[in-house]
Amino acid sequence: MKTTILRSLFLLFSVSVLSQAGHIMQGVGAVNMSMGGAATGQPLDISGALQWNPASISAFDDKIIKLDVGLFFSSPELFSTVPEFDSNTGQPTGNFFSGNTKDDRGVSPMPALAMVWGKEGSKHTFGASAFGISGFGVTFPESMTNPINMPQPNGFGHIESDYILLQIGATWAYELSDKFSIGVEPTFNYSTLELAPNPTANPNGSGYPSADKATATGIGAQFGLFFDSGSGFKAGASYKTTQKFSEFEFDNTYLDNSTAKNKFQMDYPAILSFGLGYSNDAIDLALDYRMVDYENTDGFSETGWTTTASVSGFGWENISILSAGLQYKGVDKLPLRLGYTYSSNPIPEDVAFFNIPATAIIKNAFQLGFSYEANDNWKLDIVYHYGSSGDATKGQVLNPMFIGAGNPLGAIPGSEVSYDMTTSMIQFGVSYKFIKTQETN
Fold first, then answer.
1. Which residues, listed in sequence order, are joined to residue 366 by a DSSP beta bridge?
2. Tens-place pLDDT, residues 415-428
3. For this UniProt entry, which residues form the secretion signal (predicted)?
4. Cis peptide upstream of residue 197 (ω within 30 degrees of 0)
């Protein structure tokens, strides 16, 4: 019964491709996305507060429920170049074979559900959330014009990946004073990963296998501090621990129809966030900085070939994320918002080849949104997002047959693999505030 409920929630809140900063969602919900994801020190809505700083939900003195649904589209493109080798001598001919493949994945849904229970005069505030907070995915069809997508064993053929992480949180915030709050949020996670071909498995004579979708569960927590001066200035800090997962257990099928199993550990990285906010009658300003610790996260910290020619991990570096947002409140019942997000690239050049299944790295993202406050209870939100990877992520094609002294990853001389992408999204949100009706005599 519990498994059925969890899977039903996962299907409802799954996100096929939502990579913004590394494989981390830059924001949650239409309001938080429209502020560039900045919310650690400026809780404008409950979804952003629950995602980035559990202490900041103390800013809400009502019972509020919020649902956001978005449509997300990405357009990764994969390029590769390899030298041609003489079939008799095995030596380079001096000619090169190049091509590119466009992703043919369609639009992906992106929902988020949040609720906060606050009460004026109470030092305690509670919250609950179900967010799709992470994911990556590509669908590059087999191609005879792009060497990386040529049929195995000459290339990898059809390349497809699909990683999704649903996080459920239960949050408690406590007001130490009228200015300071603390918060804690235990988190429960459910993820799936599908890879074709599966580079974490050992290849056989026919190449690498395709893996059926595997699942894993994980736990973690988030802790936060929030300060509201009462005169407009606000500040916050939070720490999301590493989300420790069980291993993915893959059922693999090779091109020769033989089968095998393998396991792969992939956790979610720890995130340290700092935020500043300022508010007056006309504007709300928000600025966040985050550090994402990929270098100490299983599945991302290790990289390279194993002794059996499988891939040991993604090999990502730590990244920094800067989020900024402005809300203008000068139009009655129609607050307007602008947001920007910058993220460094976690993929080093020497391991770009290992990260073809996870190409969705967005360097610059821009958001435009607004809300319509229909009445004291109902509020409608909308945001449009556009993101770009900036410069393409690139490196050399790797092959364990080329491993040697001074070439530990087997880089093929004269080769190159690269990928870039843009993303776009439109998201709608609706929130309802439960206001008690005042009785009159």
1. 340, 386
2. 898 888 888 889 99
3. 1-21
4. yes
